[in-house]
Amino acid sequence: MRSFLYQRATDPNMAVQVLSAAAAADDPLTQAAAQPLAGGTTLIDLMKLDVMRPTAIVDINPLAQGWSAIETGGESLRLGALAKMSDVAAHAEIERNYPVIANSLKLAASAQLRNMATLGGNVMQRTRCSYFRDISYENCNKRNPGSGCAAMDGVNRMHAVLGTSDRCIATYPGDLAQALIALDASVEITGKSGTRSIAFAELHKPPGSTPEIETTLQPGELISAFSIPGRWPRSVYLKARDRQSYEFALSSAAVALDLQDAVIRDARVAIGGVATVPWRARETEALLKSQKFDDGLAQRAAEAAFADAKARQHNGFKIALGTRVVARALAQAATMEIRS
Fold it and tell me: What's the whole-model pTM score?
């Protein structure tokens, strides 16, 4: 690992100022000279691999007192960005009214990592693409803009089939993000000009022609909280992976339903493991709304989620697998017993 300067933020203003001063206007934030440190479960890993090479680390853990609250009162949920994944996953009200969030966190990593990792860091984690994480491969547009994408004609079994471009097919790896985008979450962002709020769906950027720019955050900005409107007790997170513990998704689905007499009044569906960004399956939702649930409807709706999928040499199986995962998640949500 390369040497770096360690700084400990004493308040949000200090963190924002240090990060802003180190960010060059023409560089993506992922290449900024100073990087924030929370749980460190992604940043330290990538520094060891020499993928990320910050010259300064800004420890934002002292901000946890104001940025780690779990607020469940009323008809909404607010989660501090520095809340630990394990604390949120085990929270009784979240397990009862937002099981899709609780389960996405429980299935996301090992217990040790969940005890360290924060919500903000989790949604900002970077791709697990082997060509991105191995610097011996020069051709990676995300790490080395303009160099090409080795995954296009390489081993691409784990890569995306949705949201891809001719510059990048790297999969977004997270689980929580699917739950948040499905539930219409918003993101509170703290920066030099104070705080602003955006829809979670606007946080991540598809690769397009600039895969090195992964989010819409501006220099110095930090995620400080997430807000989720309403309650979704009838919700599930289903994850298919190569092994049952501590593994990234081959395909996953976050599903939330509002049912009355077997008729779907509202439906929220997001899919993971198959796209370059957290992916909302709005075509699927449109087919489900105002319909009486049955297995045939679930299958048709699941197929709609992958209507625009584009497979490469090794990842075509994800389309069939993803369709089955979405259909099964819909069935589980429709038949689940609601906890009182």
Answer: 0.96
